[in-house]
Amino acid sequence: MSAAALIAFLQPGAAYAQKDSKPISSAQLTEAAGEAERQLQQTFTNLRFEEFGPAPVAGPIYQATAGGRIIYYAPQSAHLLFATVYDRNGVNLTALAQEQGATRRVKAIDPAKALAIGPVDAPTVIEFTDPDCPYCQALDRFWSAKAAEGKPVRRLIFFVSGIHPTAAAKAEHILCSTDREAAFRAAYSGQTPPVLRQCAQGRAKVAEDAELVAKVGVSGTPTLVADGKFISGFQQAELEAFLDRHAKPALAKAVSDVRR
């Protein structure tokens, strides 16, 4: 058996992993370890390794996505790996896979089916939100403050109703209201009317949003999509950067118009 082939067996308890195969000797394992270490040093010459030895993970490793995050699974040893994988050129393969997955997830979202809040010509964000989520309420206050500063956004709202027990009823109330935006603002400011509105259309939309949430893999609120990138939670710095990116062209145009 070649040293390269032996590397596959360089895991604890893997010496008898293949059916009907002969046990691997200690010398063979040592040879495989040495070959693996030499390959590591030759491939990643910019890194210096102080220690080298067998990992607890055995067998093949598979890539999976959970909540928009790339994870790795080794079924033979039942290990879950939260890791970043690089190729020999330093390319972050995990990040690439995550970006590709995000692109596919965004394509599953139909903006026309969202509850739209904000000016039509403003920068657009997709927002998965829950009326009972305190961070969602804080995000709503943030957007309102930014709008007062002259930095409004167009929010495409989809409701997440599987986290808090009254979220579905409040979302239905908003969707059944004559003025949906006013009902949304009231709900997110903590106001609960004595009687929540109900209607078949609103109930169907809440169920439809729940299906989309499961399909896209949203696991927490708020979850936003800005410039095609998923943002989990109320990440104020990222949202400030998003607003700044979109405000600069508008500001440049305004200055240009003044000069004319």
Automatic annotation (TrEMBL):
<keyword id="KW-0732">Signal</keyword>
<comment type="function">
    <text>Required for disulfide bond formation in some periplasmic proteins. Acts by transferring its disulfide bond to other proteins and is reduced in the process.</text>
</comment>
<comment type="similarity">
    <text>Belongs to the thioredoxin family. DsbC subfamily.</text>
</comment>
<protein>
    <recommendedName>
        <fullName>Thiol:disulfide interchange protein</fullName>
    </recommendedName>
</protein>
<keyword id="KW-0574">Periplasm</keyword>
<dbReference type="InterPro" id="IPR036249">
    <property type="entry name" value="Thioredoxin-like_sf"/>
</dbReference>
<feature type="domain" description="Disulphide bond isomerase DsbC/G N-terminal">
    <location>
        <begin position="32"/>
        <end position="95"/>
    </location>
</feature>
<dbReference type="InterPro" id="IPR018950">
    <property type="entry name" value="DiS-bond_isomerase_DsbC/G_N"/>
</dbReference>
<dbReference type="InterPro" id="IPR033954">
    <property type="entry name" value="DiS-bond_Isoase_DsbC/G"/>
</dbReference>
<dbReference type="Pfam" id="PF10411">
    <property type="entry name" value="DsbC_N"/>
</dbReference>
<dbReference type="InterPro" id="IPR012336">
    <property type="entry name" value="Thioredoxin-like_fold"/>
</dbReference>
<dbReference type="GO" id="GO:0042597">
    <property type="term" value="C:periplasmic space"/>
</dbReference>
<keyword id="KW-0676">Redox-active center</keyword>
<dbReference type="Pfam" id="PF13098">
    <property type="entry name" value="Thioredoxin_2"/>
</dbReference>
<feature type="domain" description="Thioredoxin-like fold">
    <location>
        <begin position="123"/>
        <end position="237"/>
    </location>
</feature>
<dbReference type="InterPro" id="IPR051470">
    <property type="entry name" value="Thiol:disulfide_interchange"/>
</dbReference>
